[in-house]
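Long-time lurker. I teach an intro course on protein structure, and each term I like to show students one example going from raw sequence to a predicted 3D structure in token notation. This year I'd like something fresh instead of my usual example. Would anyone be willing to generate the tokens for the chain below so I can use it in lecture? Attribution to the forum is fine with me.
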Amino acid sequence: MKPSVIREMSTNELKERLDEEQKQLQKLRLNHAVSPLENPMKIKLYRKTVARIKTELRKRVIEESTKEISR
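-- Reply from a regular --
Happy to contribute to a lecture. Here you go:
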């Protein structure tokens, strides 16, 4: 998922998507531990997507707290 798409999503959508991505990543890791995946690069893609979503959520929290402090 591209960062531009992530920025356009609402905070609630991001939280829901984060849960979905983390569950999928956990399933992939478990399946990879049991038997090798056909495409192990999927794990990397999900990890990066989770990191991008977490980064955007954290950025929004910081922006909100900055607005409150400046008031």
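Some talking points for your students: The chain has one domain: 3-70. The longest helix spans residues 41-70.
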